[in-house]
Amino acid sequence: MEKITDEFISGARQAIHEAHKVVILTHKNPDGDALGSGLAFFHFFKNLGKEVTFIAPNQLPVYLLWMPGISDVLVYETRKDQGKEIIRAAELFVMVDFNHRSRLSEVGDVVIPHKVPKILIDHHPYPEDIATFIYSRTSSSSTAEMVFEFIEKLFGEDAVTKSVAECLYVGIMTDTGSFSYNSSEPLTFAIVGKLLKKGVDKDSITDKVYNNFSEHRLRLLGHSMNGRMRVVPEYQTAYIFLTKKDLDDYHHEPGDTEGFVNFPLSIRGVVFSAIFIEKEGYTKCSFRSKGSFPANLVAKEHFGGGGHMNAAGGECKMPLEDSLKKFESILSQYKTYLNPPDHE
Ligand code: 5GP
Ligand code: MN
Question: In this structure, are 249 and 307 located in the same domain?
């Protein structure tokens, strides 16, 4: 559903009204939008007097650990028994920033069969039918923007407190690369205006999100650009790869490589970039593109993933070197999406 209809409003409002125990869920490897949207709901439900738990499938990025309410997030990977118990007792699920069961990883095995109302709010394409009430708008800048619309429509602007607003601002800011992409709709800025009126200190949030890393992370970024980036001019592509040893050598903390994949796009002529990170038994891949190059198609067709046209991700169940070979070998399939060479 691309719009919040009257039917959606009355159904979702009733489900919220009737539930006391609420569980909020987001996707694996949560980013600023996932945590911002989930934490905004966490504060909102607390303000309504609900018993609310926000469950994330796995580790949280260290650079977001300052966010209001984050210390209350239950990381399923490390507290499975408690997580299962809370999920089984839930009377309502609110799911944000994903629309495929696979994005919940193991948490989905407990959540999906539990037949209580589920509200899903998300901006990724091709939603799966995994919820009772689905608000899905692919053109939205971020899930956080949609969470604002949802709370405002159902409960009025007063329900957006300062903490709710701060969390939503983090979601919108990070998912638009600080308003440099996915942010051409006036609605995004109208909502940001309303968040600022709630007392959000945007400069301080920018500082906390982007200037809050270890020295090692900046050196890892340098190493990635200098020694771990390959450019394939023929396909207007550049990619980075990092081994487990690289991550160890630079004392990697969760979230440290977030954003690295964007840098190759600053090379003149490059329209497609990727990063491959060596994990235990597989390779994690992220893709970014410019214009009409479909990064999500590459993720979907070859790396078991998906995402947006210009930002997507997936996994490769192969060692790092083989994943890189595979990537280079499939690039020719996407030649039609490349810009034609300039004519003299
Ligand atoms: P990132 O590269 O920042 O991890 O993710 C970029 C986009 O791709 C996000 O919208 C995210 O939801 C999506 N994405 C990342 N990894 C996966 C994946 O493994 N599967 C799917 N379906 N989407 C992913
Ligand atoms: Mn998002």
Answer: yes
pLDDT at 210 over 70: yes
Query: What integer best gives the mean pLDDT of the chain?
Result: 97
Mutation test residue for ligand 1: of 124, 257, 296, 297, the one with most atoms within 8 Å of CB = 124
Torsion of CA 156, 135, 299, 242, to 10 degrees: 30
Is 53 inside a domain boundary?
yes
Based on the structure, what is the number of domains in the chain? 2
Q: Which residue's C-alpha comes closest to atom 17 of ligand 1? A: 313
Please check whether residues 124 and 19 belong to one and the same domain. Answer: yes
Please state, in angstroms and rounded to a whole number, the distance separating the CA atoms of residues 252 and 245.
Answer: 10
- For ligand 1, atom 24: residue with the closest CA: 313
Residues 201, 280 within the same domain: no
User: Is any atom of ligand 1 closer than 6 Å to the C-beta of 30?
Assistant: no
Q: Is residue 302 part of a domain?
A: yes
Range of the domain at 326: 215-343
pLDDT band of residue 38 (cuts 50, 70, 90) is very high
Domain closes at, from 172, 189, 210: 210
Report the separation in Å between the CA atom of 179 and the middle of ligand 2, taken as the mean of its atom positions. 13
Residue ID of nearest Cα to ligand 1 atom 6: 312
Helix (H, G, I), strand (E, B) or coil at 312: strand
Q: Measured from the CA of 300, which atom of ligand 1 is nearest?
A: 22
**1 within some domain:** no
Q: How far is the C-alpha of 62 from the C-alpha of 212, rounded, in Å?
A: 9
Residue 344 pLDDT grade (very low, low, confident, very high; cuts 50, 70, 90):
very low
Q: 3-state SS of 243-310?
A: CHHHHHHCCCCCCCCCCHHHHHHHCCCCCEEEEEEEECCEEEEEEEECCCCCHHHHHHHHCCCEECCC
Give yes or no for residue 100 CB within 6 A of ligand 1. yes
Domain end point (choices 210, 228, 253): 210
With a 6 A CB cut-off, is 31 part of the ligand 1 pocket?
yes
CATH number of the domain bearing residue 249: 3.10.310.30
pLDDT at position 22: 98
